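Treating backbone geometry as a discrete language has practical consequences that deserve illustration. The amino acid sequence and the backbone structure tokens for this protein are reproduced below.
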Amino acid sequence: MYETKYHKAASVQDAVAALSGASEGAVLAGGQTLLPTMKQHLASPSDLVDVRGIAGMQGVTVGDGTITIGAATRHADVAGNADVKAHIPGLAALAGGIGDPAVRSMGTIGGSVANNDPAADYPAAVLGLGATVVTDRREIAADDFFEGMFSTALDDGEIITAIRFPVPTRAAYAKFPNPASRYAMVGVFVAETGGNVRVAVTGAGEDGVFRHDGMESALASDFSVASAAGATTSQEGVLNDMHASAAYRAHLVNVMAERAVSKAG
């Protein structure tokens, strides 16, 4: 077994200092991906910096037309938060459908977004709502944040501290979950904000989460189930694996978009 130093940060500054002093440090939030990876000896960080106790990275804040969620806020807390339910019910529903109760009680929004698993739910909400990822150094627009499978714009040692979501006119998420893992085989987040429509797809792309331009154009002209059904989804760049073919996933994109539009009303 390899040696790992554990640091429980009391502030963002403490976490930054611990990471900068580590030869190969890693941020520990919910640990839903990191810890199993370490157990399988696929990762061996020299230092684990636990950010779960940082008060400034917890909770939900309502601003002027925005909802800001601390990066260390657990899925269960997002799902059950009254402000999220009132202002972005589609986001609360998404959080409530992640994994199982044990995962939702430990996993965090910042950890999920930083990991950028190609089948994770939160990236679809961040990209679909056009959110802003706030770090200890800067603010990153959703369109600039996700760079590919398990890849983001974060620099080494950079820590997500919060995610700021604009409150949409209407929004919803629908996914077809893998029956074993509950990860999205295909998930679609649809949002209309100030007349601008965004559609983000997770679980289907070879490079992770992506925006569906054709679906956005169709829904911008007519926000209806029929428009979602009629949009063309190419199989190019769509995952083809043991769980589903590219053709099946491309079909599911339209089906999940139809359901999301119906939910959004």
Summary: The radius of gyration is 18 Å. The mean pLDDT is 96. The CA atoms of residues 10 and 53 lie 6 Å apart. Residues 1-49 form a domain with the Uridine Diphospho-n-acetylenolpyruvylglucosamine Reductase; domain 2 fold (CATH 3.30.43.10).
